[in-house]
Design goal:
It catalyses: O-phospho-L-seryl-[protein] + H2O = L-seryl-[protein] + phosphate; O-phospho-L-threonyl-[protein] + H2O = L-threonyl-[protein] + phosphate. 34% of the residues lie in helices and 23% in strands. The protein is an alpha+beta fold.
């Protein structure tokens, strides 16, 4: 039923928001600490599912928090979008620069062994403070940030994801994907929903094909296992567009 993973995400967001609005001494700036937020979420989830609730579960965890890097050395202060990517397990965050069909960043998957990812939850030894990894990625306006479950990356190679996303945005800008009012540039006004849906379709097509070549098949063969076709698994995509605030 996915309760464990939903609780982890709920408490992860709550911990971040609580720290963001927490009063600080004058001159002390806020700095994201996503691993600590995930650790708090993990502990709160254990507490919420403890004695009396009889709730068992495990989940991988991947997330991206948008912040900025300030520079006041020049005559005019500037701020560069900075993405804090946190990962534990075999889900993945990818950043695509669609204009150039370019892969900007891809997080690294974590396994105990093949097809056994690190996870948070019941009977798992993994914890955020011990095992989660954080990367920071400088973004440009128009970059697309994707958070995906292993059902996507087990069936599509990174270059296929980049091409799928870039072409989906081009199609969206050309008017495909349903009627919408306003600007469609770079995938605005609903374009990210279209991007996510098209990526899910592409991953599902490979997952259901017993003769397709897939990243999962390639890794299995490298491990000496007989494997052919796609990998049936949960397929989830969240897509976000880096845009400048109107204000």
């Amino acid at each position: 039923m996915g309760l464990w993973s939903r609780l982890i995400l709920h408490f992860w967001v709550a911990a971040m928001q609580e720290d963001l609005v927490k009063p600080r001494p004058e001159g002390q700036a806020y700095h994201p600490d996503p691993v600590q937020y995930l650790q708090e979420a993990y502990e709160r989830t254990i507490e919420a599912t403890a004695e009396g609730n009889d709730c068992l579960g495990t989940t991988t965890a991947t997330g991206a928090q948008l912040f900025y890097k300030g520079d006041s050395s020049g005559s005019t202060p500037t701020a560069t979008p900075l993405l804090y990517v946190t990962n534990l397990g075999d889900s993945q965050v990818i950043v695509v620069r669609a204009k150039g069909h370019k892969l900007v960043y891809k997080s690294t998957e974590q396994w105990h062994w093949f097809d056994c990812p690190r996870q948070l939850g019941t009977n798992s030894p993994d914890t955020p403070t011990e095992n989660a990894v954080v990367d920071t990625v400088e973004l440009q306006e128009g970059d697309v940030v994707l958070a995906m479950s292993d059902g996507v990356i087990d069936n599509l190679w990174a270059h296929e994801i980049v091409e799928n996303v870039s072409k989906s945005i081009e199609r969206w800008e050309a008017g495909e994907g349903g009627p919408v009012g306003g600007d469609r540039a770079h995938g605005t006004n609903g374009g990210m929903t279209f991007v996510a849906e098209e990526l899910v379709k592409a991953a599902k097509q490979i997952a259901l094909d017993p003769f397709a070549e897939s990243p999962f098949m390639e890794r299995a063969i490298d491990e000496g296992l007989a494997s052919e076709g796609g990998k049936l698994d949960d397929i989830s995509v969240v897509a976000g567009l880096c845009r400048r605030n109107a204000s």
